[in-house]
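User: Okay, second chain of the day. Same drill as before: sequence in, structure tokens out.
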Amino acid sequence: MAKPKIILGIDPGTVVMGYGLIQIDGKKLSALTMGVIKLDKLKDHPDRLKKIFDRTVAIIEEYQPEHLAIEAPFFGKNVQSMLKLGRAQGVAIAAALSKDLPIAEYSPRKIKQAITGNGNASKEQVSAMLENLLGTKFQDIPLDATDGLAAAVCHYFNSSGVSSSSKSYSGWASFLKENPNRKA
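Assistant: Same drill. Structure tokens below.
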């Protein structure tokens, strides 16, 4: 019998980072765990980034996922917020790459579309649809956590053929090959 597969999904943030893990056992999809990493008590941005890195590595070591699905930063009006969010996402990706975990990146719209069929769905609609898909209730679960779970489920739905709107990397070498301008 094949070993169940695990996918880690992350909704990056600099104040709260959501994560969720799904398990695929044959054709049965279930929520393994989810939660948030609260960063608001840390004053310095570098301290927040370090906590994101350390907690992401710890989650990977504990649950041994086969893939990381992460939400891509969206373009907002506040450039400083967008830069900080991009750093948070980059640190989570670096943590996964340090453990040789393949990465898939999905836009918020793509994740919402995959879960609800509507790319403009609210966080509440995504959470409610995940409850239906996974046959469980998310009582007192922060929406950032269900957003992380949604990224994992989106990857599961798209993993049979990697979508053109996602980017996958199998390690540092493939990341650098696809992004030569990011080398120092």
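The beta strands are 5-11, 16-25, 28-38, 67-71, 103-106, 167-169.

User: Thanks, on to the next one.
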